Amino acid sequence: MDSNREGFEGAGRERERLTPAVDWRRNLVALWFAEFTAIFGFSFAFPFLSIFISQDLGVHPGRDLDLWTAAAGSVSGLAMAVASPIWGVLGDRLGRKPMLIRSMLGGAITVGLIFFVQTPIQLVVLRFLQGATSGTVAAATALVAVETPRNRVGWALGVVTSAVALGSAVGPVVGGIAGAFFGLRLVFLGGGILLLISMIPVLLVVRESPLKARDASRPGTLAMIRQRPGALRSLAVLIGAQSLITVVNTATQQLIVLRLIEMLGRAASSLTGIAFGAAGLTNSVSAIGYTAVTRRIGYVRMLTLASVLLAVTIGTLVVAPNAVWVVLAVGVAGLLYGAFVPATASMIGLETPIEAQSTVFGFNASGVAFGFFLGPLIGGGIAATSDVRVALAVTAALALGLAFLVLLGTREPRIERP
Fold first, then answer.
1. Using CA atoms, how far apart are residues 31 and 24, in angstroms rounded to an integer?
2. 3-state class (DSSP) for residue 255
3. What is the tens place of the pLDDT at every residue in 228-286?
4. pLDDT tens-digit readout, 189-228
5. CATH 1.20.1250.20 residue ranges in the chain?
6. How far is residue 278's CA from residue 118's CA, in Å, rounded to a whole number?
7. Distance (Å, rounded) from C-alpha 412 to C-alpha 151?
């Protein structure tokens, strides 16, 4: 019996020796282009939902347009919040690359089909299906976290985040121009085609290490995490922090538009595009460069400092004297947000056992999706019942609360050196 076991173990080691190592740098380059194209495809179309509902679906401005816009904007976040943990579990069982391909294909189909939509309810249904079947960022994040050496995870996740930020910044600009020339239906069709194109580098270039055979005696995800003292509490706080920073970011984005409208009226649209374009650029820069700060002061201190500075930045919008001040503040907020997101994702990856990465990042994506749903409700609700400045002050207070959450609830991750 022992000789048989030794033979099987020897064969397993031989297979591992003959299996070519995954080139994580090659993966990262391909995933950067894939995520940039995918997010470009999403943001190419969706910032113009309310215009599409009004002009193409015939909903008159006012209460009806507000309600359908809110429904179409939030339903995908709810669907993603429910579906992401399920996809995460399947990723750990079936592979992270298949889940990334699934998310891009799901997004391509649901976004492209909006070209044929004739009623608002059809749009809401497709948005629900899009939220349930997509989720490219979570899938790409899990794949990068697993295949990258532990001491390079932070930098690699920052690179992925920079692709997301840049795609989000460029997409609306190009989409707006395309919509003016060709109409928004073709813009949605173009977004679906871009998502199909984003699959090409994943299919042709990205490689994934063979999954370990499932062992009935191997502990479940929760048990594996609990084997690391303090990991469960830290992961819960980090996922909560990712959700809260999303609430702060989405609420702030909505309130910035309202603040600019207060200042500029109809002229606010052009400056809004400039502001969010600046935020996208600063976001992508800090997503790559934040590791230089973490090497000096550590993850926890960097996140705490970024949260405090974000609270101060949002607070200045309450008393901003002019639109230029608002644009500068948005750029600074993008810089801080761009550091916070990949840093917390890196900490999640370093705290999580390899075998449970997709599952944990699935739950993280669920929290982020819920933040996308909750942020606009908080910001818009307070602004509607009180005032835009009051809503900004509350959002700044949430950012300050985020600093305390990170400082008191997380710990410095242990980074294994090769």
1. 10
2. helix
3. 888 889 999 999 999 999 999 988 887 887 787 778 776 665 676 677 778 888 888 88
4. 999 999 999 999 999 999 988 876 555 556 677 778 878 8
5. 23-208, 221-413
6. 35
7. 14
Assess contact for 320 and 264: CB atoms under 8 A.
Answer: no
Residue 316 CA to residue 220 CA, distance in Å, equals: 47
- Crossing angle, helix 357-385 and helix 323-351, to 10 degrees? 150
Q: Which two tokens stand for residue 384?
A: 């509607």
Residue 9 has pLDDT above 90, yes or no: no
DSSP annotation string for 280-299: HHHHHHHHHHHHHHHHHH-H
Tokens of 292: 């230089």
Q: How confident is the model at residue 142 (pLDDT cuts 50, 70, 90)?
A: confident
| Domain at 23-208: CATH architecture | Up-down Bundle (1.20)
Torsion of CA 149, 152, 154, 160, to 10 degrees: -80
How far is residue 79's CA from residue 103's CA, in Å, rounded to a whole number?
13
Cβ atoms of residues 205 and 78 within 8 Å? no
Tell me the residue type at 163. Answer: A
Q: Hunting for tokens 């109409």 — which residue is that?
A: 183
Place of tokens 């830290």: 234
What pLDDT shows up at residue 313?
Answer: 95
Structural domain 221-413, CATH architecture: Up-down Bundle (1.20)
Summarize pLDDT for 307-318 with one digit per residue, the tens. Answer: 999 999 999 999
Decide: helix, strand or coil at residue 326.
Answer: helix
Return all residues near 389 (Cβ < 8 A) that are at least 6 apart: 259, 318
**Cα distance between the two ends of the chain:** 36
Average pLDDT of the chain, as a whole number: 83
How far, in Å, CA of 260 to CA of 250, rounded?
16
Per-residue 3-state assignment (H helix, E strand, C coil) for 289-355 = HHHHHHHHHCHHHHHHHHHHHHHHHHHHHHCCCCHHHHHHHHHHHHHHHHHHHHHHHHHHHHHCCHH
85 close to 363: Cβ distance less than 8 angstroms: yes
Radius of gyration (C-alpha) of the chain in whole angstroms: 22
DSSP string, 137-193: HHHHHHHHHHHS-GGGHHHHHHHHHHHHHHHHHHHHHHHHHHHHHH-HHHHHHHHHH
